[in-house]
Amino acid sequence: ARDEELWRLACVKVWGLSIGTLDAQDAENSTVYYSWRDMFIRRERVNFSGCYISKTTYLRMGENSFQDQFYRPVQLVEYYRYIRFMPDGKVLMMTSADEPSQGVTKIRNVHNIRPDVLRGRYRLFGDTVTLVLQKSSQSRATTGHVRQRRGSVMPLDEDSNATQFLIELRIGHSPKRRCAQLVWSHYTLVQKRNKVDTSSEFDLTDAKYPSLRFSPVKSYHLDADAPLD
């Protein structure tokens, strides 16, 4: 388990072409890594054996009653946001009212994605992870005739009227686990209509966009979580 080649392959699996070398400092944070194992342990990354989950709760005022104008109901709105990263650079994001026990199952099968799931790719830059997500058009989602490579969850055809979601998240740590938290730093919506792009930024308040916390999901991977006996 201390073989450096195994740890180098593990680092390549996480950072890909941006892995760098051990004899040079990390360009993003000027950190020196003494071995591939040291890099894998200390360098910021995303976890693959589960998904990052956040819960948003807010109150919404309802309409006045016709019978009693002084009565106005208050609705409690709760929903969850799920983000799942995969080693090949793909990422899935879903917003749903389902509890985590049901929500994680909807993004378990990466080859049979629901229409309400955003799909795309991500890159790591130091402690920042950038996401480029896109939602398939309704016609493609319902018919299922999407031209794609085997194992790909991204449509190859470029839609002339598409919507992209550009997201930047900062990787944080929890007291019990490294890289177990994602904090929103930037969120832009880009709409393409008749070859004209229109962008709008979201107001990233803590109430609407709380940080996401990592939750392990056993059905997401076949790797061992502990050393084998």
Automatic annotation (TrEMBL):
<keyword id="KW-0833">Ubl conjugation pathway</keyword>
<dbReference type="GO" id="GO:0005737">
    <property type="term" value="C:cytoplasm"/>
</dbReference>
<feature type="domain" description="F-box protein Hrt3/FBXO9 C-terminal">
    <location>
        <begin position="34"/>
        <end position="149"/>
    </location>
</feature>
<dbReference type="InterPro" id="IPR045464">
    <property type="entry name" value="Hrt3/FBXO9_C"/>
</dbReference>
<protein>
    <recommendedName>
        <fullName>F-box protein Hrt3/FBXO9 C-terminal domain-containing protein</fullName>
    </recommendedName>
</protein>
<dbReference type="Pfam" id="PF19270">
    <property type="entry name" value="FBO_C"/>
</dbReference>
<dbReference type="GO" id="GO:0031146">
    <property type="term" value="P:SCF-dependent proteasomal ubiquitin-dependent protein catabolic process"/>
</dbReference>
<dbReference type="GO" id="GO:0019005">
    <property type="term" value="C:SCF ubiquitin ligase complex"/>
</dbReference>
